Amino acid sequence: MPVMNLYVPGLDKGKGLYFLFIKAETKTPSGLVARPVLTSYYKSQQFKTRPYDPYNVYTSPNETILCVDSFQSMYSQMLCGLMYREEVLRCGAVFASGLVRAIKFLQVNWEELALDIETGNLSDKITDSSVRECISKILKPDPDLARFVREECCEGNWEGIITRIWPNTKYLDVIVTGAMAQYIPILDYYSGNLPKTCTMYASSECYFGLNLTPMVKPSEVCYTIMPNMGYFEFIPHDPSNPVTISRDSPPKLLDLADLELGKEYELVISTYSGLCRYRVGDILQVKGFHNSAPQFKFIRRKNVLLSIDADKTDENELQSAVENASELLKKFNTTVVEYTSYGDTKTIPGHYVIYWELLVKDPSNGPTADVLDQCCLAMEEALNSVYRQSRVADNSIGPLEIRIVQNGTFEELMDYAISRGASINQYKVPRCVSFTPIMELLDSRVVSVHFSPSAPHWTSERRF
């Protein structure tokens, strides 16, 4: 906040509309509680009894943040945000996907929210007693505000909706680097191109650094490492010549003082809480220096193919999921010839899309649409617990989709790549695509579309 106040003065004169949520806790076999770092913080006394700070006043009462039911939490936080709309100076969520989900929630539920504001009575859908109690203290009948909400939402025009409903908003406080960059266009649409500030670089394991120039474009964001947060080391990373690391050939580790401008590195940390030389999995590039401290641009998560929210799916996991689903095709004498994927964020919530090319050896006994729907579910069952929790408990990821393409589609894909200069000897089918012409080619060859018929299995009883 001291950094933000240099660029946006007066942030102590209003409130922040932040959509913050906790996730369900899990337990290890020995009974220890396991939970995400932000859930741990929000449930701690440090958060619940934090001293008053005029620079960090939220529209959402603690009780709305601590409600484990995602619908009730979102509904009550949005309601409070509408009631305090003229006091809101900044809007945000942890990830860009969270803020997009909040606006989509408003699109679906604005009529009931307006009714609550008009009557001063909270919807019966909110059953959490602590949420009802805290909202009852601030919800009063306000017909004028209810009329305003209806006028802004009834025509279905959502362009600039953030600045129309919260007119004093100065910026969006969301992470839009890395995989979250895919949400920049929709946030620009909703906010009328408000600045998007990526204020910090952190993970569950450690806080790493600050963005000392928070008002720059997302593509220009750099983070300055704070060396007092842990001990930071770096493995040189060359995409064209990956390093093989084994017990017999440990990597060469560099200190902060040894890094070079323009080079890429994999981050390794040792923390006060006991992690020793832990590989975070982030690839960073040195873009400059603040005094002598390197400033990094986040390049990508190492080996991550797909990410919609907090989920991270790598190539090996995607391959295992495809193999798991392929078992359902064996009785139909059918196999998956090739596949690729992408994360579709045009829908809210976003979801995984998998393109399959099938070899059906007996066309008279090929897999039915119901079987292919079950293949979607089988893939989801094989993905990690973070993905399945996001699907089941958090509703932050939509049902997985499989698109069946015509035979020969992936040969066309190779021909296209070769026409652009790829080597026919070294060509490999990309397991994740984002290049528009390739996606247009794939979509033009789709013969059927299938979705998971139900949510995958997920339980808070985690087995390690």
UniProtKB/TrEMBL annotation:
Pfam families in the cross-refs: GH3, GH3_C, GH3_M
Domain GH3 C-terminal: 317-435
Keyword Ligase: yes
Record keywords: Ligase
GO terms under cellular component: cytoplasm
Domain GH3 middle positions: 223-301
GO molecular function, one term: acid-amino acid ligase activity
Coiled-coil stretches noted in the UniProt entry, renumbered to this chain: none
Entry similarity comment: Belongs to the IAA-amido conjugating enzyme family.
Protein name per UniProt: Uncharacterized protein
Organism field: Ambrosia artemisiifolia
